[in-house]
Design a protein that fits this description.
It is built from 12 helices and 12 strands. By secondary structure, it is α/β, with parallel strands linked by helices. The strands form 2 sheets. The chain has a 10-stranded mixed β-sheet, sandwiched between helices. A two-stranded antiparallel sheet has the order 6-7. The protein is globular and about 60 Å long.
Length: about 350
């Protein structure tokens, strides 16, 4: 089968991790008789340098014409002084809007072989955890009305949190459908004791829950959720929450796994075309040194095969190879901890995973 994949390497370590994922995908293609056709596009700082804007129209058109998008990372100190509408991060928000990607799935689990890398106590980690955070991606405060004005105490800035019933309904259904394939538990995170938008969120989630009587629903305030993630992460299965809360909580969940270099993510809409990326940033301090962990990007590629291309066996194959490499004691610098030996480079870890496919 033929699949057209838009590649956005981006900035910092982006080119290194995307190159590793492409190598893995090419081996999978040969093994299973597929043809992955890669087309590169610019976004972020690299696009600013080349075209003057963070998201060129050519990139938008190319991504829309593709079967899926594999994304590296964007941003860095070089572009920190750019005005808001020209910052590299605007490319991400723009692509989410243009592609209609309203759902962000972020799995977070502990690998038994890496339990010692977690920042949590051994007795907490011993219980294990395996959760998926379902984050609403195109609404809320990040997309609400914003601006500057003269206020009571002088100049002030404002950002508006706003959600429609439709936006909450569709993300809630994604969460409940995900839970039906897992342990049938959804934790809905909001701030309904303070925010009107959260009260609408809670009402809507409960109404959608009636369509899924097999799923247990738990409401949790966001501040309590932040505490419970480090106190008892094993209590979570599927977490559904708003754009900003999801942004914060998913980063917290990723950190307790031991390294953000292990965690993939997918952004999905109503079509099969998805947007897949590691959750870590561009890490400009280690860019070009061949020491970045490629696992999160490789697992993002596996998510692409599963969610956009319906290639379950191929996705399982990649995930099994990653698990085997970790179980065999192979480590990059971010996860080596107190282990003996020299950490693998990005290229060496990629090759080790390929050897186990």
């Amino acid at each position: 089968m033929n699949f057209n994949i838009a590649l956005i390497k981006g900035d910092g370590v982006g080119p290194e991790i995307i190159s590793g994922a492409v190598k893995v995908l090419n081996v999978v293609a040969e093994k299973y008789g597929h043809n992955f056709i890669f087309n590169e596009y610019l976004a972020g700082g690299a696009a600013i340098d080349a075209t003057g804007v963070p998201l060129p129209q050519e990139t938008i058109d190319g991504c829309k014409a593709s079967d899926s998008v594999l994304f590296g990372a964007i941003g860095g100190p070089k572009w920190d002084s750019m005005p808001g509408h020209l910052r590299p991060e605007k490319a991400l928000l723009g692509l989410r809007t243009e592609l209609g990607l309203f759902t962000n799935l972020r799995p977070a689990k502990i690998y038994p072989a890496l339990a010692g890398a977690s920042t949590l106590r051994p007795d907490i980690i011993a219980k294990g955890f395996d959760m998926v955070i379902v984050r609403e991606l195109t609404g809320g405060i990040y997309f609400g009305e914003r601006g500057r004005r003269d206020g009571k105490y002088g100049p002030e800035a404002y950002d508006t949190e706003c959600y429609s019933v439709m936006e909450v309904e569709r993300i809630a259904r994604v969460a409940f459908e995900t839970a039906m394939k897992r342990n049938k538990k959804v934790t809905s995170v909001d701030k309904a004791n303070v925010l009107e938008s959260s009260r609408l969120w809670r009402e809507t989630v409960h109404r959608i829950a009636e369509e899924y009587p097999e799923v247990e629903v738990v409401d949790m305030y966001v501040d309590n959720a932040a505490m419970q993630l480090v106190r008892e992460p094993s209590a979570f299965d599927v977490v559904v929450t708003s754009n900003m809360f999801g942004d914060i909580l998913s980063d917290e969940a990723s950190q307790i796994t031991g390294s953000i270099g292990l965690l993939a993510s997918s952004s999905l809409g109503s079509s099969k075309c998805g947007f897949y990326e590691p959750i870590h940033g561009s890490a400009p301090d280690i860019a070009g040194k061949n020491i970045v962990n490629p696992i999160a990007t490789i697992l993002s590629a596996a998510m692409m095969l599963r969610y956009s291309f319906d290639l379950e066996e191929e996705a399982d194959c990649i995930e099994a190879a990653v698990n085997k490499a970790i179980e065999d004691g192979l480590r990059t610098a971010d996860i080596i901890g107190d282990s003996e030996g020299t950490p693998l480079t990005c290229t060496e870890m990629t090759d080790a995973i390929i050897a186990r496919l």
